[in-house]
Amino acid sequence: MSEYYIGVMSGTSLDGIDIAYCQIKEHSFELLHSDAYPFDKEIKEEILKAINTPMTLKRIGELDTRLGEMYANTIERFISQKRIDKKQITAIGLHGQTLWHEPNSANPFSMQLGNPNVITALTGVSVVSDFRRKDIALGGQGAPFAPAFHQYLFSRLKAKIAVVNIGGMANLSILGERLRGYDTGCGNVLMDYWISLNRGETYDKDGEWARSGTFDRDLLEQMLKEPYFSKAIPKSTGRELFNADWLERELRKFSPKKSGALSIKKEDVQATLLELSVVTIANEVKKSGADMLIVCGGGVKNSYLMQRLGDKLKGTEVVPSDECGVSSEFMESMAFAWLAHERVHRKCVKLSSITGASKDSILGAIYE
Ligand SMILES: Nc1ncnc2c1ncn2[C@@H]1O[C@H](COP(=O)(O)OP(=O)(O)OP(=O)(O)O)[C@@H](O)[C@H]1O
Ligand SMILES: CC(=O)N[C@H]1[C@@H]2OC[C@@H](O2)[C@@H](O)[C@@H]1O[C@H](C)C(=O)O
């Protein structure tokens, strides 16, 4: 029997809302429709302010409602554009927008905004949301969750497979009997910040600016000393660590000129940031022993990044997930359609081997 789910993801890159409409049968999963809806500048700045600056509870509460309304309106637009029969949809799997992820504190939490009550009230469709906090309540990291979906999709492939999502952050899945997965560190987030600061562009299209520079080996070695990269798993990260302050600190350490002037060309910083993401991903893939790396997330569109990943992983087949029949752009939104399906069917999601939770559990809350 077929069921139909919508998956909605807006991730740490803050590039916008990805939506996937999926058909799930007992032994198959198919992406029927998908689309991406960029954030407008104002809402992106409001989210960034909420992440980076002190904000009143009133403003956070209003942002939660605003994001709920924005998700609802975008979902309605998607349903109408794709001529989807709303009555067919079992549920919407909503990730929401991560404002803060704090899995290691004395009082661990992970906060995603986008009020699901608003979405179900406006669309009339059930919503599954709040996926991460149960795992954290069981002592887990609450992320990454995509490895369970990667295992579901690719375990049929015979090779020793790793999957890396290169979004704002990068997260690795090592498939097989003992499924493992963790955030390797920064993906595109620092490159996005640096090109936005210096050239006013949202991202380094095709990695062209990085390609025009030369990475600085000393700066790279310095950045690789970041303790997160050598931290034991389970581990997860986000903008709490990899952010503008982190980069500014690293650059000041590297080039402590009183004048504040950089002793390195800006395009060489961009090239070094690309190399940082490539090396931290490649180091973990090598440790995994995988002979095939499937790549998804927006980083797939950065051909220079993909080229450098291939250079660093000689002997490993590096392919976009699109070549395995799965959209690299909508992998995460599909994952939340699948997670909503698992929740509706009250199935435990096998994530404890990834997050360190005391047990696998039923994830998410249903709003209807
Ligand atoms: N044409 C392109 N060239 C280079 N980079 C690109 C291109 N298109 C997208 N990107 C990169 O992909 C990023 C968006 O990727 P994606 O949507 O997977 O991130 P996300 O889901 O928000 O992040 P996360 O997975 O960490 O939550 C952009 O911020 C940009 O850095
Ligand atoms: C708290 C949070 O939103 N984490 C994100 C982030 O973006 C990529 C990486 O860090 C991953 O751990 C996670 O999202 C994906 C969808 C995941 O849970 O697999």
UniProtKB/TrEMBL annotation:
Its EC number is 2.7.1.170. InterPro entries: Anhydro_N_Ac-Mur_kinase, ATPase_NBD. The keyword Plastid does not apply. Pfam families: AnmK. Catalyzes the specific phosphorylation of 1,6-anhydro-N-acetylmuramic acid (anhMurNAc) with the simultaneous cleavage of the 1,6-anhydro ring, generating MurNAc-6-P. Is required for the utilization of anhMurNAc either imported from the medium or derived from its own cell wall murein, and thus plays a role in cell wall recycling. ATP binds at residues 11-18. Coiled coil: none annotated. This is Anhydro-N-acetylmuramic acid kinase. Pathway: Amino-sugar metabolism; 1,6-anhydro-N-acetylmuramate degradation; Cell wall biogenesis; peptidoglycan recycling. Keywords: ATP-binding, Carbohydrate metabolism, Kinase, Nucleotide-binding, Transferase.
